[in-house]
């Protein structure tokens, strides 16, 4: 068992983690330069964003489930979905109640200060533009600001920021699948519910249908559900990795006749594999596949897998999907770099409220998720890696949809733009930091 210091050193020296961080910084800076030099304008950036959301993310979502299904995976995915339901439903409900009862919670001293600041501001305004202090308008503005603050904290940009790190550090294992499961309710809340809340429309039955429609018609959401369904079919008998006892004699290399005691599916191109159990260790099986070129059975380095593991069963289809999925990281960071190029850096750093939001988003939210997942890691229901990823997800910058809706409806648009940019700039510190913290804390909890 590794000590905490050994684990810390192994994490911070992880070449995958540093490769992801350095790649992020370099490509983001490239996007910054491309916008400053007018190689990429807002129109081009918008087109890339649409490409990412409508094409690349769906391919990545599909690709993350293209693997063999086993009992550990389905247990992990079920628990992660349950945790995401607790997180999103509970926090969104608290946010709605908070906004509803906010006028009663505001201390009179805060209102008096707001009135004083407003009067001082009006003294410097032209006579024909002067307005009288209105408490109701002030409270309404405050409600709207609290609303977007809550939504930006709850619905982070999981897809754009967490995905490249997960791919760089963990590859395409159960961790990436868990991230996509966590994002299912994000699509509903971040794309649909957020639109309704920020737009200010009355949440009627008709509006509920519109919100649900806006979420479920999102391409990535649809593809995730299709991918999960296809992945789950591997639990149907003989559709997943299947190993049976058999006694068969087959010719191997150099015309050696060997007796095989196992038969399994699936191998490359849906082929059947034959295996020989190691006499010293029954858990070890040496697998063989038939070579059509040499016309005899040759050693196979893998093992039987499910039909949906297209990297093995249909590599000719898996390859273009993996290439498209691999485009997500560079395209995302280029777009983020162009966004930072448009930000007033000086004004962004100067505003104290922006730093207060950063404390909420990159400090409080990952801590909430850490507390949420600790019991499940302690009980060995999910792995340390999966738990650490969920903790890291809490620290990512606000979701782009929430910020876009805020800009569109002029709901504290300047505030959301600056806080989003500040969170993006500091994410290069907080995202890997919380991944390390999550790994260390959850590793000690799981002992």
From TrEMBL:
Keyword Membrane included in the entry's annotation: yes
Keywords: Cell membrane, Membrane, Transmembrane, Transmembrane helix, Transport
Positions of transmembrane segments: 16-35, 47-65, 77-99, 147-172, 184-203, 215-236, 316-336, 357-378, 384-405, 426-445
Domain of life: Bacteria
Pfam families: Mem_trans
Subcellular location field: Cell membrane
Membrane topology qualifier: Multi-pass membrane protein
Main localization (coarse): membrane
Keyword Cytoplasm: no
UniProt cross-references to PANTHER family, sorted A to Z: AUXIN EFFLUX CARRIER FAMILY PROTEIN, TRANSPORTER AUXIN EFFLUX CARRIER EC FAMILY
Similarity field: Belongs to the auxin efflux carrier (TC 2.A.69) family.
Name of the protein in its database record: AEC family transporter
